[in-house]
Amino acid sequence: MAKRIDVSGLNAYYSSFLAIEDISMTVEPRSVTAFIGPSGCGKSTFLRTLNRMHEVTPGGRVDGKVMLDDENLYGAGIDPVAVRREVGMVFQRPNPFPTMSVYDNVAAGLRLNGKYKKSQLDDVVEKSLRGANLWNEVKDRLNKPGSGLSGGQQQRLCIARAIAVEPNVLLMDEPCSALDPISTLAIEDLIGELKERFTIVIVTHNMQQAARVSDRTAFFNLAAVGQPGKLIEIDDTERIFSNPSVQATEDYISGRFG
Amino acid sequence: MSHATLTPKSRSSLRGATLPKWFPWAVAGGSVLLGLGISAAAGLHSSIQWALIAAVLFVAGSYGISARVEGVRQAKDRVATSMVWVAFLMALIPLLSLIWETVKQGVKVLDGYFLSHSMGVVADSEPGGGIYHAILGTLEQVGLATLFSVPIGVLTAIYLVEYGRGRLAKAVTFFVDVMTGIPSIVAGLFVLSLWVLILDMGPSGIAGSFALCILMIPVVVRSTEEMLKLVPNELREASLALGVPKWRTILKVVLPTSIGGIVTGVMLAVARITGETAPVLLLVWGTDFINANPFQDPQESLPMYIYLQYSAGSDPAYDRAWAAALTLIAFIMILNLAARGIARWKAPKTGR
Question: Chain B residue closest to A165 (CA)?
Fold first, then answer.
């Protein structure tokens, strides 16, 4: 299921503006990798290059290599739609489809891709909702609108929706920044369970969160506003938070800037 | 302790004198009476004059009294509120008087017979006859126009919002804007010169439909565009990130989310073209007989029927014109209600 991501020499642009420059890193399968860094340093942009969502933004373009196991996501003939089925994504703000019920939201990925059997669908929905720790809360209201859930439940619904299509990698763009501490805790626990099955990459502004949930942490920074963001270092989370090898990382983590 | 000694005289600074709730109503009643009194004394007979005097008295009166009792800021607030009310009532007057007059004049001959018979054997000066042929013509012409315009309009809007970048999109937007301003008679003349004069086709319902299309498409494009723009980008991204192709995202996520608004826009466009007379006059010609075939020979339509009956000039013809006008208004009102119903039914649900 889970696959390794190997990025090398990746640049991402918004029209002519170079947003992130020359990023190379490896993300291990069945692990959680956290991206930290100040606002505007390109963490989210980089995350979106990993499932070819960056090019959805007008003017967005990428060069470099992103290997998913042994396939280059930016190679010739690669279908971005197929890439996104392999690499799922959860966004900063919960965004369930407002016209769909809880059930339909979870089933959306399969239904909209048109490859499912009706009999399987019930199982997939239950399994995904259980996987997102939401089943017990919504099992009696599967046919109610998904937008009627609380913010934390909506975000777990979005996670259920993302894992229902059985991706290999799950990207999370600040999944807890719009949530209260209890919902945040629920999602962090969930991330711990999900990493048994998926490769997880999470962008977060909350360094305690990075320290709690991740196995490895990458620190991004930018020299100045208008300059491209860069990967400063990536290492085991424990090392990054106790004994980072770059001074800038230590300054950021100890709150001396950023 | 210190607070009590410091401010013994003044009441709380947060609480000022307030006029009672019935104050605006009292001022309104007073100004109406005063307005009537002044008109009577001055010998003015027009109801518009006393209403205007009353409106001015109402605004000035609320300001004056409120400024004395409550203070200038509250008085200004009351003036703004009363201006809004006065404007609202003034906008309501023509609407209500129009409906009142149409209903009063229209119910005289409006019955089942009127709705189910044509003018085939009835002279303009005789009573009797009906609008069946006109209703049929309107339904067919508007129906055909809607059939052509909605796909073209909605697809154009989808192109503009979801795909359009660069020059082509700008050009399309520009021409849609220009088309919005085309007078209906010009649309009629355009189809007349193309369809009737160059292609040598006779008058027919469908020729009218083409002209109505020209009027309807820009309205549909505009309203659909606005509705599609309201769909949050996050929903598109959520769908794309599930590995759903773009066209399916548009079909299954974007359109269902905005379908209520799109339907409302289409219904409003339908209501707009239903009342068009000029292109129908040029291209459909009108007839007193029932012609259910919109592809051949002249047809009738409701606005044209009203126009022709009014031109006929006899009392029974006037009655028929009013009754047809009432039918037309009722038809458009039903369409609007249906649009609202659909919009409410299809709107994204938030219930728990």
Answer: B242
- Residues B82, B196, single domain; the answer is no
**pLDDT by residue (tens digit) across B56-67?**
888 888 888 888
In sequence order, what DSSP letters do the residues of A102-158 get, joined into one string? HHHHHHHHHHHHT---HHHHHHHHHHHHHHTT-HHHHTT-TTSBGGGS-HHHHHHHH
Statement to judge: residues B139 and B101 lie in one domain: no
Q: What is the mean pLDDT of residues A19-40?
A: 93
Q: Which residue has the higher pLDDT, B203 or B3?
A: B203
The reply to whether B98 and B229 lie within a common domain is no
Residue B340: predicted pLDDT: 86
The beta-carbon neighbor of B243 closest among A84, A141, A144 is A84
Please name the residue that has the structure tokens 């996670």. A159
> Is the confidence at residue A204, as pLDDT, over 60?
yes
Which candidate in A78, A85, A99, A101 is best for mutational testing of the B interface (most B CBs within 10 A)?
A99
Could you tell me if B218 and B296 lie in one domain? yes
| Cβ burial A137-171 (10 Å sphere, 16+ → b, else e) | bbeeebebbbbbbeebbbbbbbbbbbbbbbbbbbb
Tell whether B258 is within 8 A of chain A (Cβ).
no
Q: What is the mean pLDDT of residues B245-271?
A: 91
- Other C-beta atoms closer than 10 Å to the C-beta of B128 total 14
Whether residue A8 contacts residue A65, with contact meaning beta carbons closer than 8 Å, is answered with yes
B203/B300 same-domain check: yes
- Please name each of the domains of chain A with its CATH number: 5-254 (3.40.50.300)
Inter-chain residue contact A112 with B248, CB threshold 8 Å: yes
Averaged pLDDT for residues B320-339: 92
Is this complex scored with an ipTM above 0.85? yes
Tokens (6 digits) for A81: 């739609």
Min CA distance, B257 vs chain A (Å)? Answer: 6
Exposed e or buried b per residue across B88-125, where buried means at least 16 C-beta atoms within 10 angstroms of its C-beta? eeeeeeeeeeeeeebeebbebbbeeebeebbbeebebe
- CATH number, residue B321: 1.10.3720.10
Render B168-195 in DSSP notation, one character per residue: HHHHHHHHHHHHHT--HHHHHHHHIIII
Query: Is a pLDDT exceeding 50 seen at residue A190?
Result: yes
Range of the domain at B280: 132-345
Task: Look at the block and give the residue holding tokens 């008087």.
Answer: B97
Do B286 and B328 sit in the same domain of this protein? Answer: yes
Same domain, B154 and B295: yes
